[in-house]
Amino acid sequence: MRELHAVFPRRSWLARSIARLLLGTVRPSRLPGLWYVEGVRGLGDWKAVYTVEYGGGARRATRCSCYSSTFGYARRSEGL
């Protein structure tokens, strides 16, 4: 967890990730580096399911389908 917090220092990201883990809303896909995340209204989600892809590499880039929503620019800049 400390490594994740060092990479993504925003506490809201960490708290939301822990909540999703405890709620059991994250499911891995058959493809490596791709997960399905069930939306949780209490966390501000509007869609039923999101996809999150971890690209790896030096940048450790992640892409979430939430970035393509109306307010996706805010989620991306907050590191959510």
Overview in brief:
By secondary structure, the chain is of the alpha+beta class. It has three helices and four strands; from the N terminus they run H-H-E-E-E-E-H.
Describe this structure in words.
The protein has one domain. 32% of the residues lie in helices and 25% in strands. It has three helices and four strands. The chain has a four-stranded antiparallel beta sheet. It is globular and about 35 Å long.
Q: What is the topology, as strand order, of the major beta sheet?
A: 1-2-3-4
* Number of domains as seen in the coordinates: 1
Total number of beta strands: 4
Distance between the termini: 16 Å
SSE succession: HHEEEEH
Cα-based radius of gyration, to the nearest Å: 12 Å
Proportion of residues in helical segments: 25-40%
For the largest beta-sheet, the strand count, sense and barrel status come to: 4 strands, antiparallel
Residue windows where pLDDT falls under 50 for at least 5 positions: none
- Contiguous helical run count: 3
Q: Structural class, from secondary structure content?
A: alpha+beta
